[in-house]
Amino acid sequence: MLNTPEPRKTRLPFEVWALVAGGFTVALGYGVVAPVIPQFALEFGVSNFAASAIVSAFALMRVVSAPVAGRVIDRFGERRTYITGILIVALSTGASALAVDYAQFLVLRGAGGIGSALFTIAATALLIKVSPPDARARVASLNAAGFLLGGLLGPVFGGIVTAFGLRAPFVFYFFTLLAAATVVAIALRGSSHAARSVPRPGTEAPVAFRAALVIPQYRALLLSVFAFGWTSFGVRVSVIPIFVVVGLHGDPATAAWVLAAYAAGNAALIFPAGRWGDTMGRKPLLVSGLLLMTAVYLLVPAVPILWATMALMVVAGMGSALVNPAQQAVLADVLAQRRGGNVVAGYSMASDLGGVLGPLIAGALLDAAGFGWAFSVTAALLAAATLTWALVPDSRKLQSADPVDTAPGR
Questions:
Q1: What angle do CA 385, 389, 394 make, to 5 degrees?
Q2: Within its chain, how far is the Cα of 322 from the centroid?
Q3: Distance CA 388, CA 136 (A)
Q4: Per-domain residue ranges of the chain
Q5: CATH fold of 205-397, please?
Q6: Segment 323-333, tens digit of pLDDT
Q7: Cα–Cα 20 to 30 A to 232, which of 3, 286, 319, 368?
Q8: How far is the C-alpha of 298 from the C-alpha of 363, rounded, in Å?
Q9: Contacts of 173 (CB under 8 A, 6+ apart)
Q10: d(CA 379, CA 126)
Q11: pLDDT under 50 in the chain at which residues?
């Protein structure tokens, strides 16, 4: 048998590494501060509901600010929007360490949500612009791995930082955000990719949201990221821990191990998924990953055994690793290195809406009808996204197609 050498990998631009480093730094700091946010709110003598509302306020402001972030990007560029947004989060976080009452803390976290929408949407748009067309899934997996590593290390640092008091994590996050802003500002200062669009001839204007909606892959993407946000950012972190404690008679520590199993499955496939997405295409990964996640959420309430739940969470993490980079690669295929702030904002908004509505609706179903219904509705949503991707062509074919209309507007 002849040994055929593998195709040479495309060398990634330095801008990619700068953005991944910035994302890792942000995730590290957030992993430190996130667990103490409700605890800090309780220090002001409010109810558990009011303490939880602090988290919801941040998420809500991310959702409502997404369309504004898209317009800001199209007008001022991704690099300026990224730095502005991350500085807003830094200042609001640093000020939170000085908050003297609940109202101040609530307003500051809401302001942080606005800044978060600006810089996360700008970061996604920047990654799309600087990603080589034949390495888009690989860049997305590298970025996801940076966030995953930062999120895993954050609680480790958090245990050390929290020893200095509940205000200390906010100070720590303030400095990590400044570090991320500095890295990106310096690294991308002379970048032609980050400073301007890299359009095809005759497509200098930003890609309009209405024009992107004409593309079936983008419509499928909006449903997919909504389902992914509902499941991975919502139900997984809200209903799964309750299921472990109530349904499996575990404790909070056991719930943490179950979520760690998900992270382990995600880490196992995150890098291979990037390679496969660029060689096999986006569609096979999206269909297979969503199918895995659908099966998991159908089986979890049907097999109420701790070791089985942990094994299923590993599989869910593997499915998530297949889906997440492929989704960002589809978005990159739609934009084809052109500016499209509103298109990226729509993608981010769909994911955030899923993350906000998932816990609320699944929680209501849990109270009204039990775990079976909560997980079954989640599985049905994932199945709908799977079917949608099965019916549309792979988005890599868009690279050779005519560019979409780029007329201004939404």
A1: 155
A2: 14
A3: 22
A4: 13-196, 205-397
A5: Growth Hormone; Chain: A; (1.20.1250)
A6: 999 999 999 88
A7: 368
A8: 16
A9: 29, 30, 32, 33, 93
A10: 33
A11: 1-7, 197-203, 401-403, 405-410
Element (H, E) at 91: helix 78-96
CA distance 90 to 208: 31
Concatenate the DSSP letters of all residues of 287-320 into one string.
HHHHHHHHHHHHHTTTS--HHHHHHHHHHHHHHH
Give the contacts of 36 (CB within 8 A, at least 6 positions apart): 158, 162, 166, 169
Exposure b/e, 216-242, CB count within 10 A at least 16 = b: ebbebbbbbbbbbbbbbbbbbebbbbe
DSSP SS3 for 152: helix
- 355-394, pLDDT tens digit by residue? 888 877 888 888 888 888 989 999 999 999 999 999 999 9
**pTM for this model (two decimals):** 0.80
pLDDT digits (tens, 9 = 90+) for 294-318: 999 999 998 888 899 999 999 999 9
13-196 is classed CATH 1.20.1250.20:
yes
